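Much of our argument rests on the idea that a fold can be written as discrete symbols. Part of our work consisted of pairing the sequence of a single chain with a tokenised description of its backbone. No coordinates are needed to read the tokens, only the vocabulary itself. The record that follows shows the chain in one-letter code together with its fold in token form.
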Amino acid sequence: LKLFCFQVQRTQPPPEEEEEAEEEETEELGHVDTYAEYKPSKSTIGISHPDIVVETNTLSSVPPPDITYVLSLPETTIKGGLLSALQLEAIIYGCQQHEVILQNKQRAGFLIGDGAGVGKGRTVAGIILENYLKGRKKALWFSISNDLKFDAERDLKDIDAPHIPVLALNKIKYGDTATSEGVLFATYSALIGESQAGGQHRTRIKQILDWCKPDFDGVIIFDECHKAKNATSTKMGKAVLDLQNQLPRARVVYASATGASEPKNMIYMSRLGIWGEGTPFRTFDDFLHAIEKRGVGAMEIVAMDMKVSGMYIARQLSFSGVSFRIEEIGLDNDFKLVYNKAAKLWAEALQVFMRAADELGLVSRKSLWGQFWSSHQRFFKYLCIAAKVRCLVELAQKELEAGKCIVVGLQSTGESRTREVLDENDGHLDRFVSAAEGVFQSLVTKHFPSEKQRREKAPGNKRKRKWAETVAIIVIVSLLLSTARIEEMKQDLLHKISILGKELPLNTLDELIDKFGGPDKVSEMTGRRGRVVRRPDGSVRYESRAEQGLTIDHINLKEKDRFMSGEKLVAIISEAASSGISLQADKRVKNQRRRVHMTLELPWSADRAIQQFGRTHRSNQVTAPEYIFLISELAGERRFASIVAKRLESLGALTHGDRRATESRDLSKYNFENKYGTKALDKITKSIMGHIENKVPPPKALFLLISDMKLGMMDVGILCKDPRFGISTEKDCSITKFLNRILGLEVHKQNYLFQYFTDNFDYLIEKDKKEGKYDMGILGIVATLNGNILRGNHPCVLLAEQGRGKNFIVYKPNIGKQSQTETAFVCLKQSSFYCAYTNTSILPRLNGKCKKIEEGQECLQGMRLRQYHMLCGALLRVWKRVADVVSDITSSSILQIIPAVTVDMCWKS
């Protein structure tokens, strides 16, 4: 650890107007450049990577440890360029980390956090080959799909190691034993596989352990390891932890482009040695609490500390040439009309469900409302997606005409509803199906309150049997009447859904394929087994996606080949194709058109988002892709953008050391799932209910609709009617629930309410910025040069332009043109020339007194030099102690992480 003390010259003007001075203060620190070109700093072997690779400036500011490990890989592999210099570097540090034994007697693990397309597969294959040459002939390779076994074989072949066999666990019977050596390839779901064949209870994990033997010291690869993120709450996650504990000497490698989207999802990385015996954090929960409490800055410290310690490496392809843009799509009047009808019917359905539940006297309703609101959310999500189909096709046609090709990303295929209709019609289908209608119908058909859900108490007193019999008769009659009324309500609701269904949009995926010219023009890479297609004569039928000689499991690979060869110029991918399939403009394939990757439906998590985006941006490409995020004008759709923006922001900080590393700034305006969103929600609900006076006025249109808005918020479960207190906020109405539920409001109400929310959200952020309470992530203190502060390479100056008369129009650094003109004397006082080299507060000279100085405190206002103390080095292990000390002194829990740029660096840049 090193403690530095240094001074920075400031350009803050004397605060004639207090608010103006505060605005300057928030701009004192500027964001540093996000990326630096990456070159191995201590490894000298190998040929340069074929593409430009970058590392975030935060991570590049700390060095990796010195190299002590000597590779056994053959010279032909190294000098022949089968593994690039940066892939060899990762292999060296991985094998070097495996020489470390943690205090809990387990062997240390290594995390490869390289981005999609850098070549993690070859790196992993290199680690397996290195250990094979060292006599460790067995290795385990876990991934998310059995099809990726072929990729593993390809990666080993590419580095000239085809002699290492890859065995698929799913092809080996539970009772059989695998061969004595090679790579045992399995999926994460295989870890929880069980069999009762022959009356014996056999499990896959026992079969794996029997093959490895207790003293196993070979490699275990957890590829796409983010799939094990819920290690405490899922059987699969627990199995990943259990396997690591059962084989303490194994050489564990975690490999993922996304690592973990939140600190809580790092729990399966038990071999990193960050928590546990001999560390500052006794348990994972202690580590989690310390990191989450300190915000984004602490997550950045984690990534830096891991790199310094030699347990982590994270590079990604340069995004140079990649473009990101958001297309906000307007809604036509016909769509708004249908959307509003749907919103009203869902509000009616809520009341009908409540009446039916009351009629039956249901005691427990948690499951009922869970089903209702999840269906509500899925229904409106389908409508949001459908609203963008026409615009997407129009945009795509323009790009195709410009000589490009299209990749469309979505998550929902709507296959379950199609199969339901198929079953209802004995396997025949002559129309496109509406997924939204199916969600609504399924909810009412399967989950409408019924007699089965009732919880009745049996009569307790046997001595009053006659009375009990009388009560029983009354209850039976009542039940019959009640059941009839409830059935009538249910059928009436189904009838109304059927009428609405005629106007609802059709299945998005089928409609997209149809509008692009049918299956012959589109490469579909999804998990569904069949689709609805239009015949040349205009009729419609359901057909299987399987082809002669190809199983459904291999059809996605065939479709990929058709796209890459240029036979088809449009590809549609879902989550099923978001791992392991390369769709970039590869130099080795025929179709080298620029890829335009359109995201019709944002994935539910950043893990999935990064996987999907990484399909079209990979190594060895002719051109980088264009990314287009399609978001409708429906305010509620911000919910889907919000969750991805939140995860990407967090993900960048954790897995790449900088929260802007994944270009999430393009979506950052949609991230509301934070403390400001929670505060803004509290303010608008209390304001609408009349409990408080809000400083932020509501939109005029909303002001006229306040009474309607209360009812609307009750219709979607944001507000509820409490018999004791009147209208109140729904219990546990989190920002997530709010963003989910407003989808169910009519379009105009939804947009007005959301505008009011975002106005409050923006106000709260600006307020905290002015008060210095806003956590801006990584900011840079930049050294001074020739009396002027530098921001990047640009000197910061004040511009005074001659206005009318003797006054000047003033333009200030970072905040621009000032509304009030100034005299030449005032301009001179505010310029960096005035008092440029003094460190005396100029406040006393301007107004003769300073409150802080009169109170015997230090006055920093107006100073040209300010002193900072900076702690450098591997901070994670002393983070809690440092934070506690600073908190005691400053009464603030915020520690700002600031890379300092020296004068030398300024000259070099």
